[in-house]
Design goal:
Pfam families: Exo_endo_phos. This is Metal-dependent hydrolase, endonuclease/exonuclease/phosphatase family. Keywords: Endonuclease, Exonuclease, Hydrolase, Nuclease. GO terms for molecular function: DNA nuclease activity; endonuclease activity; exonuclease activity. This protein has about 300 residues and is of the alpha+beta class. The protein has two domains: about 5-50, no CATH class; about 55-299, Deoxyribonuclease I, Chain A (4-Layer Sandwich), CATH 3.60.10. It contains six helices and 18 strands. The strands form four sheets. Strands 8, 9, 10, 11, 12, 13 and 16 form a seven-stranded mixed sheet that branches. Strands 6-7-5-4-18-17 form a six-stranded mixed sheet, with helices on one face. β11, α4 and β12 (about 205-210) form a beta-alpha-beta unit. α2 packs across α3. About 35% of the residues are buried.
Length: about 300
């Protein structure tokens, strides 16, 4: 931890490992030296912060032409401060890719430079197929390819996941974007297939972001956890009811971000943009899911 202490004639800059003071400054030179030290301090602190990455995973229901410009702007305000956004349930047909492009354009007008990748439609039946998308800030995070649907899981998972490698300087990490079957159509079998694929892969720093339609406490995740993966959140509901009951609008804890060895969790939460029951109807026009947030570093 670093902190700066300024006295009238002395300046101390301290953290866990270093300490120095500037004594007997004359008033004519004090301001310049203060500014110089502040710039060095902020530059050092900013460099350290660049090693941290924030990721949001969000099932944005029916993400396509049904989303108005106002709703896209509201979505932007919810996610604009993160580094990477993983989106599930992008419409496979007309409007899905356009909505991702529009969202990225709005983000680009908020101050940071963003780019996006959208998957091909999943190899699913007509009313099940969808796309996945990633949107990310390009200042520090790079890609070297446009990602791929995991064809090895095509026959085992209705909406086979979308995998993309990211690079922070020379550090590589991979995010797998996943949307399982509904809870009443055996999502457990898909999670088992996904787990088998992951545990036989060589990715050392891997995150699985998505809507699993299963609570992370269920037994089906035990094998994944025994292979070094952890859930970002636990006992936190991520879906919205259609109507409030007893002043409660949250429903099921089924969205999550799992992270492997090589990933250090710094902070996680569910981003609740509803807050009170009176906002529920408007919130559900954006999605019936809440975003899951994870801030992490790479070993």
């Amino acid at each position: 931890m670093k902190f700066l202490v300024i006295y009238p004639l002395r300046i101390y800059v301290m953290d866990d490992s270093w300490f120095f003071s500037i004594l007997d400054l004359n008033y004519d030179k004090m301001l310049k030296k203060i500014l110089l030290i502040l710039l060095v301090f902020l530059a050092f602190n900013g460099y350290a912060q660049n090693d941290n990455i924030s990721l949001v995973s969000w099932n944005i229901r029916d993400f396509g032409q049904t989303k108005s410009s106002e709703e896209l702007d509201e979505i932007t305000e919810i996610v604009r401060d993160v580094d990477i956004i993983a989106i599930q349930e992008v419409v496979a047909g007309y409007g899905g890719a356009q909505a991702v492009a529009k969202l990225t354009d709005i983000l680009n007008r908020k101050g940071s430079k963003w780019d996006y990748v959208i998957s091909n439609p999943t190899h699913s039946s007509k009313y099940v197929t969808e796309r996945y998308a990633f949107i990310w800030k390009t200042k520090h995070i790079k890609i070297k390819n446009r990602g791929r649907l995991v064809k090895e899981l095509d026959s085992l998972i209705d909406r086979e996941p979308f995998l993309l490698d990211f690079y922070l300087s020379e550090k590589k990490f991979t995010i797998l974007n996943f949307h399982s079957r509904p809870f009443d159509k055996d999502p457990e079998s898909e999670i088992k297939a996904l787990t088998n694929y992951i545990t036989n892969s060589s990715n050392s720093a891997l995150l699985i972001a998505g809507d699993f339609n299963v609570d992370e406490k269920k037994e089906v995740f035990d094998t994944l956890k025994s292979n070094g993966f952890n859930a970002s959140i636990s006992n936190q509901k991520t879906t919205l009811k259609k109507a409030c009951t007893q002043n409660e609008y949250l429903n099921h804890p089924i969205d999550n971000i799992f992270y492997s060895r090589g990933i250090n969790k710094l902070k996680s939460k569910v981003i609740d943009f509803v807050n009170v029951c009176d906002n529920l109807d408007k919130a559900r026009k954006l999605s019936d899911h809440l975003p899951v947030y994870l801030k992490f570093s790479i070993e």
